[in-house]
Write a structure and sequence with these properties.
- The complex is a heterodimer of chains A (462) and B (297).
- Chain A is built from 15 helices and 2 strands.
- Chain A has 462 residues and is mainly alpha-helical.
- Chain A has a two-stranded antiparallel sheet.
- In chain A, helix 1 runs parallel beside helix 4, helix 7 runs parallel beside helix 10 and helix 7 packs antiparallel against helix 12.
- Chain A is flat.
- In chain B, helix 3 packs parallel to helix 6, helix 4 packs across helix 6 and helix 6 packs parallel to helix 7.
- The two termini of chain B are 27 Å apart.
- The chains are: A mainly alpha (462), B alpha/beta (297).
- At the A-B interface, helix 11 and helix 12 of A face helix 2, helix 3 and helix 6 of B.
- Chain A: Belongs to the binding-protein-dependent transport system permease family. CysTW subfamily.
- Chain A: This is Phosphate transport system permease protein.
């Protein structure tokens, strides 16, 4: 049976187990004089039965799905006769795909060697066997789990504790998924980065001021020597992010103050969702807005006052990005400002402070950690933003602080390095991982700085 | 105590009805017994700090204060008592317009501080609140240092030109609040780390640092233990020499201990105002009597 069918089946068994355990706990309680003589409510006995039925079965199902392919593949490959047995990993993957294509009928069987045909038969058999075996095992475990839970429906056994403990592990597992994913990403990036530094010296990458990631396909190619200096990319990123934050932080903060302190309840209920809609606009839409409307406008204005502006400019990308991240600042700040207790406001107002003085002296310091959180979120968004920059700021890696020049950012370069046909062990593609690593480190440092700022200046209430 | 309160006359309120009402036996007197705008006792004064006439407060549609007229005399301590929800806090918050921040709250009638209308649209609320300070039910020190808490008001109003002036104001206020000896070595510590009673006295110090003429206190001791309460009450007695104090309290003993006059509120009506001694020994209105003898409330 397919996993897709097995999954609902397990759930059905779990529901049946739930119902059976529920009925049984009631009937066990009957002669004792009601459910209050049980150690736990019937719901807990039933929930425990469902959990014990579903969780082991699902774990088995997951493990099977994860390892089935690899195991079968190894068995098939090792069954191949010596003359067609693969010599290198490349050959192995070729032959495996050949075998599975034959097995699935995508490849004409007459055009492959005898040995592959045999292997394809074997593959099909193994797959069928595995599927049957899996189905039997999963159902068996689900039923066994339910049966065990059913026998444990006894008045002196506290099912509530079992359920609580299981749930705690479940919650922990969910939290662990997020952490493990991050760790996995970081590790994979680190390995590739180390490989990159084997090809390009780390000092050149860190301190080089020129970025032109070409690698030679042939030894005699023209312009084949690439330059991998990350400085122009990071200055570009910082320039655009700084412009974006210069727009988003004041505007966002002040709109948050307006929303929380001055706007009427009705006004707030209308304005806040509208502001939040800004964050919901796809970035590609912002991108063409920036590229087709803002950038030419800026170039025109700069021309008028005698400045030389490029058609794609950091300023255009930064301004539009700033508008995009306003809601990150305003919405979060509004929430934390609202969370500052009313009695602090009253205390300040009763001393004759105006609303603005109260805001500046009392509310703002108390809300600082949350506001900083909003700003950091906005900053990460700005640093990571790619689409607007590609469209409005260009691809040229200029080392400049002039916002009217076209610049490029780290994320944009990662995209261009990894799109299209690539060989995955050239310095060019590996550079993307090194850039990702640096980006990760930079945002980490920014977060640490923000944390320290908050710790220094916040005024903690209650 | 009453000698300190020479300005209250024994003139009775407009349209005060019978002194003696037939004793009522029921536990909870109905509102129907109360005649609107009628207050028994001595609600008026010759030398009023506050002159409040026909005050009505609305929360949206509902009328929380029903046609109350009252004078608050200069340098007196007047206590507002009454069951929960009777409007005493609402009425108190009219005196420095703290109700302004509640959108649906509307105040009608004439409220004058030293013959100037409090609710005049052109009135500067900042100046009003600098003159009429307020201490709240729950101690609400700012999450700043003790020094900054007391210096907050003076800084806003520019009361000190030099740092040394500000230091003096802070020290004097803390001394008046009886807190100086406890905190003089840790003025830089955060105020939120103090005990509840200290926090409340700090809030009082913070209020008097602005040199107000009136201090409003909204159940200032309800969150404090008996020892802290005693300290705050002592403080009120000292402050009464230089300030007009209006105190809302749930504790009748407290009203009896600290106030010159006591006003009894019931369901938005001001039922009786009299010298505190009289209210607690021989109240004129039967409902006041019921309340102070604990028959309801």
């Amino acid at each position: 049976m397919q996993t897709a069918n097995l999954l609902p089946l397990v759930l059905v068994i779990a529901v049946v187990a739930y119902a059976l355990a529920y009925t049984r706990s009631r009937s066990v309680a009957e002669p004792l004089g009601g459910i209050r003589n049980l150690k736990a409510l019937p719901f807990y006995y039933a929930a425990r039965a469902a959990l014990w039925c579903a969780i082991p079965a699902l774990i088995l199902l997951g493990a099977w799905a994860a390892f089935e392919g690899k195991v079968i593949q190894n068995m098939v490959v090792s069954s191949l006769p010596a003359e067609v047995a693969p010599q290198s990993p490349g050959e192995a993957s070729l032959i495996v795909s050949q075998i599975s294509n034959v097995a699935e009928g995508k490849l004409d069987p007459t055009r492959v060697p005898e040995a592959v045909l045999g292997a394809a038969d074997l593959l099909q058999n193994l797959r069928a066997e595995s599927s049957n075996f899996k189905t039997t095992l999963v159902i068996l475990i689900a039923v066994l789990g339910s049966a065990f839970a059913w026998t444990r429906v006894q008045p002196h056994i506290n099912a509530r504790e079992n359920v609580e403990r299981t749930l705690r592990w479940l919650f922990f597992a969910c939290a662990a998924v997020a952490i493990l994913t991050t760790v996995g990403i970081v590790l994979s990036v680190i390995f590739e980065t180390v490989r990159f530094f084997g090809k390009v010296p780390i000092t050149e990458f860190l301190f080089g001021t020129s970025w032109s990631p070409q690698t030679a396909l042939r030894a005699d190619q023209v312009g084949s020597d690439g330059a991998f200096g990350m400085i122009p990319l990071f200055t570009g990123t910082l320039l655009i992010s700084a412009i974006a934050l210069l727009v988003a932080v004041p505007v966002g903060l002040m709109s948050a103050i307006y929303l929380s302190e001055y706007a009427s309840k009705r006004g707030r209920a209308i304005i806040k969702p509208l502001l939040e809609m800004l964050a919901g606009v796809p970035t590609v839409v912002y991108g063409f807005f920036a590229a087709l409307t803002v950038a030419p406008f800026i170039a025109g204005v700069a021309d008028m006052i005698g400045l030389n502006a490029s058609v794609q400019s950091a300023l255009a990308a930064g301004l539009v990005m700033g508008v995009m991240i306003i809601p990150f600042v305003s919405s979060l700040s509004d929430d934390v400002i609202n969370a500052v207790p009313q009695n602090l406001r009253d205390g300040s107002l009763a001393l004759g402070a105006t609303q603005a003085e109260t805001m500046k002296n009392v509310i703002f310091p108390a809300a600082l950690p949350g506001i900083m959180g909003g700003i950091m979120l906005a900053a990460s968004r700005a640093i990571g933003e790619t689409m607007i920059v590609v469209m409005a700021a260009g691809l040229a890696a200029n080392l400049t602080a002039n916002p009217l020049d076209s610049v490029t950012t780290v994320t944009v370069q990662i995209v261009t390095l990894l799109t299209g046909d690539q060989e995955f062990d050239s310095a060019k593609t590996l550079a993307a991982f090194a850039l990702g690593m640096m980006l990760f480190i930079v945002t980490l440092i920014l977060n640490i700085i923000a944390l320290h700022v908050v710790r220094k200046y916040r005024e903690q209430y209650d | 105590m009453n000698t300190m309160n020479p300005t209250v006359t024994s003139e009775t309120g407009a349209g005060v009805v019978e002194d003696k009402v037939a004793p009522v036996k029921e536990e909870r007197p109905a509102e129907a017994e109360l005649e609107e705008g009628v207050t028994v006792g001595t609600p008026y004064s010759d030398d009023p700090k506050f002159k409040l006439r026909n005050v009505e407060v609305f929360y949206g549609e509902s009328r929380a204060i029903k046609n109350i007229s009252l004078d608050i005399a200069r340098n007196e301590v007047i206590a507002f008592i009454g069951p929960s929800g009777c409007g005493k806090s609402t009425f108190l918050r009219c005196l420095n317009r703290m109700n302004d921040s509640i959108d649906i709250c509307k105040v009608k009638g004439s409220l004058q501080l030293d013959d100037n209308d409090i609710y005049d649209p052109s009135r500067d609320v900042v100046e009003l609140r600098a003159r009429v300070g307020m201490v709240f039910q729950k101690p609400n020190p700012f999450p700043k240092s003790i020094y900054d808490n007391v210096a907050y008001g003076p800084r806003i109003h520019g009361l000190a030109n030099r740092k040394s002036d500000l230091d003096d104001i802070v020290e004097n206020s803390l001394r008046k609040a009886g807190l100086w000896n406890e905190v003089k070595d840790r003025l830089d510590a955060t105020a939120t780390g103090m005990s509840g009673g200290q926090q409340q006295r700090l809030c009082i110090a913070r209020t008097i640092a602005v040199s107000p003429e009136v201090v409003l206190m909204d159940e200032p001791c309800s969150a404090l233990d008996p020892i802290a309460t005693a300290k705050v009450e002592e403080l009120i007695a000292e402050l009464s020499e230089s300030y007009t104090i209006v105190i809302v309290t749930h504790s009748m003993q407290q009203a009896a201990r600290v106030s010159h006059r006591t006003a009894y509120f019931h369901l938005g009506h001001l039922v009786e105002v009299n010298e505190t001694n009289k209210v607690f020994t021989s109240p004129e209105h039967n409902m006041t009597e019921s309340y102070i003898t604990g028959r309801f409330g």
